[in-house]
Backbone:
């Protein structure tokens, strides 16, 4: 079933799709908490001054006015947040006296962007972020932990193997230094487009920046180096460039590759064309692709930032990654990668023989609920056939008949006596299940 | 710790308070699903035409513009929803072909109101709603089930006994009919203010509507009748009024009182001064008070509506109730009714002896996580005392020492050998706990 968007760019889920989203959020939450991240939620609204700190994206902001504020006193002073990083920066600075550093938090919330809606672009969507923010000095292993945690989180979802691609801004900067390229920002922007253009166009765009053939060729070669094995480090060294920052970045990525635990081998690779365009990153940068579905682009990106969270002399360097959850769900639905076993939480429908005996059905239902079994009582005392249909059309697996004291399993078509104090549903029928549906 | 509001009316929680909110949402969700309600989430943004359907509250709407939309093409056409009922009505009408009726859904989302912020009033806050919507005919027991479900849900929260007060608009309308009062809306508005004014002022306000002494006295007497026992029905009959609608309403409330299961006795009472002001209710109406903290006003209100969800000839009567969750949490925090056992999900901190042996600490951590134990590795290889302090200040109960193969329980100050494959934390230390803290 496709997501519904009666207002262009503002998707809504059916109850069945919402079960999928809830399951995804629950699995992500579990992994984030396994790593000690605290749940944070910030208000949806920020002063425009905060929202405009990041520059480029400010054009997409939704600003707020009060309908009855005729004098316009509060007009357009505040807007809806367009990501969860800017609010985190504001929250950390505002509450640094209450927080313990390093501060590790996850945040799963809607964000809004007034972009032109298009394929896979939404104006209201959910992001799932993790960030680790330190006071003054960021422990270096946080840059290694972030992609390992996200790889584990994404691997718990019903999608083919996710692979986090890691690079370091130090490497890109160092390569530019060694090649004598001053206009690093322009190079980052072109490298960021590598996968969206042909090899010829990629080289052409670099030439247009004023780079000579040898500089272009070195960058083309660099962008092609990618792999999980530490040999990729040597491949970069073989480009024959000398620069301290480049060496530092290569050491970081090499340590990263050595730190991947056995159960995540292949989920994290070095990839030297990852640049993250104009963003505020200063160290490692990350993008994540689904194996066999790389054309959808990155589903989870981020990096290290040194200057985003700072005020006067206080600095809180951090590293974070963000999943575009709504977009990821739209990809899962489009590819039919997950099945939801039913559309309601209900496990048992208690049939009603007559309105006079509804109380007996209610008694059974309260007993089942007390034992954790999601139970509805039939809204009408219609013929059994009609009540069974109520269950069938919703995927409710059991119908309980009070008079006969029997329960019918609609999945395997069996019927047997049962007591409300002892009845135990099949484990896979207790709650709606999300079942992976791909090779 | 108080909630933080650096932007007036937009509260934010500390990580510790967020654990409380998450626990409350989890408990409410559990009860709603026990009764077969599906989780729904609607977009935050609605066309102004939808938001203005309800009349009165439209003045509080935040309208949206795009910062860069210089031509104002999309200016002020859409706004943020101010409740979850109007979006439900729109969602049901729009997707009636996809939904199964009766449709039972819960919805726990932020809403926004541009009201002047004041004690306990927020501009951004979370509501937790249940609604049951039927096609054409609402099964009568739904009006009985709604308060029973909410009573169970609220009773699962760390608050003193919640009591749902039930009345029927039919009774209030019927009484006015019998007394020959035409201006029923005015009477509803005054009755709605009963608990906020003195008895004399209450009678005075009724007089000001043009009611004579006998009419006023009858309404004063009616408003004083309240109780869980079916004898309250007789007390209303003893007022000596004759009207078919009144009788119908009394039958509804009587059946309601008889349906309260033993485990909820006292959690649901009839209370004939519940009116719900200008709202769109047509049958039963509900308000909920916390025993001993009634002065905070109703924490959960609602009622039956026949005409909210309709389009042309199609009618979807429904019944619903809404918890003001952010307000309820502010009450819990102000009264210190709940304690959170720690501020992070982390159960075990694995100490690091040196950066060279960090890998061994990571190995222990991955093993513990694989067994569902939330584990952090110390960010620095500082002296043990400093690493233990990292745990103590966050409330992390266990510190793991790799070299000695021992784990220290910081709560009871014991230390013993442990294996990552078999170590089992005390059940109450595995996750942060929310502990009720009232008589």
Residues:
């Amino acid at each position: 079933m496709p997501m519904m968007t009666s207002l262009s760019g503002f998707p809504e889920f059916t109850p069945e799709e919402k079960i999928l989203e809830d399951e995804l959020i629950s699995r992500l939450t579990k992994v984030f908490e396994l790593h000690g991240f605290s749940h944070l939620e910030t208000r949806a609204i920020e002063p425009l001054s905060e929202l405009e700190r990041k520059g480029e994206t400010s054009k997409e902001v939704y600003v707020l006015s009060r309908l009855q504020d005729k004098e316009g006193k509060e007009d357009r002073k505040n807007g809806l947040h367009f990501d969860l990083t800017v609010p985190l920066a504001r929250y950390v600075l505002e509450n640094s006296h209450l927080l313990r550093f390093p501060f590790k938090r996850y945040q799963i919330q809607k964000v809004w962007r007034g972009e032109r809606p298009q394929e896979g672009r939404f104006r209201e969507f959910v992001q799932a972020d993790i960030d680790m923010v330190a006071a003054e000095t960021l422990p270096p292993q946080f840059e290694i932990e972030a992609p390992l945690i996200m790889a584990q989180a994404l691997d718990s979802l019903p999608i083919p193997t996710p692979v986090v691609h890691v690079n370091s801004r130090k490497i890109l900067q160092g390569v530019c230094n060694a090649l004598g390229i001053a206009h690093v920002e322009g190079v980052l922007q072109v490298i960021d487009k590598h996968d969206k253009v042909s090899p010829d166009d990629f080289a052409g765009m670099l030439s247009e920046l004023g780079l000579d053939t040898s500089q272009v060729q070195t960058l083309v070669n660099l962008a092609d180096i990618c792999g999980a094995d530490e040999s990729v480090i040597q491949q970069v060294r073989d480009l024959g460039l000398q620069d301290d920052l480049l060496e530092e970045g290569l050491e970081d990525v090499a340590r990263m590759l050595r730190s991947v635990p056995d159960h995540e081998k292949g989920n994290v690779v070095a990839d030297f064309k990852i640049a993250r365009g104009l963003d505020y990153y200063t160290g490692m940068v990350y993008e994540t692709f689904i194996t066999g579905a790389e054309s959808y682009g990155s589903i989870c990106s981020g990096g290290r930032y040194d200057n985003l969270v700072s005020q006067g002399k206080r600095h809180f360097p951090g590293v974070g990654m963000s999943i575009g959850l709504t977009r990821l769900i739209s990809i899962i639905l489009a590819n039919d990668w997950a099945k939801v076993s039913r559309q309601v939480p209900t496990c048992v429908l208690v049939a009603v023989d007559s309105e006079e005996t509804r109380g007996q059905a209610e008694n059974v239902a309260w007993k089942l609920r007390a034992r954790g079994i999601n139970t509805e009582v039939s809204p009408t005392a219609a013929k059994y056939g009609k009540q069974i249909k109520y269950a069938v059309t919703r995927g409710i697996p059991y119908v309980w008949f009070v008079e006969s004291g029997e329960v019918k399993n609609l999945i395997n078509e069996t019927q047997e006596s049962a007591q409300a104090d002892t009845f135990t549903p099949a484990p896979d029928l207790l709650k709606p299940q999300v079942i992976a549906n791909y090779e």
About this structure: The radius of gyration of chain B is 27 Å. Residues 18 and 211 of chain B are 50 Å apart (CA to CA). The longest strand of chain B covers residues 103-112.
